[in-house]
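Subgroup meeting minutes
Present: P.N., E.W., G.H.
Scribe: E.W.

1. P.N. recapped why we're keeping a running log of single-chain structure predictions: easier to compare across weeks, and new members can see raw inputs and outputs side by side.
2. G.H. added today's entry (155 aa).
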Amino acid sequence: MANSKVLTLNFPDETLVTLSYEDGADVVHANDDYYDYVFNATGVFETAAAVAASSLFVNNEILQSMRDNDFLEDYERGDFDFESYLAESMRENYWECDFFEGTLEQYDYKRGYYRVSFEFSTTLGQLKAAIRSDAREVAVLDVTVHTDMGDLTVN
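Output recorded in log:
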């Protein structure tokens, strides 16, 4: 498991790390109505919201971007589950969110594979703390550690 391997890395806690998520689904792209299907099938918004809303990664880039674009202004603290609110806000504002990527691989004139992804930046120290606390948020994410010698992908 990649997460347990991260704990063995001997780099400074300030080392930058990129957590990434990618998934997709086969689609019929001829009608151009496959986006919602893929978003629901992959759970990309729920996965991103779990990481962004985690108390282990406070004041992160995703939350800051959502705040800057006024996508969170209707949330009143204490109303209900912030993570669910965040996922729904991401779903409603997908086209304006700059942290999600979507790519279509066309098999032919009507079928293909639509891939969705996002990246999340943090530090090695924060990631190790999240792993030690058994954070479910990072369990499904790929890890790339940025070092002076190059990028290290932990599988």
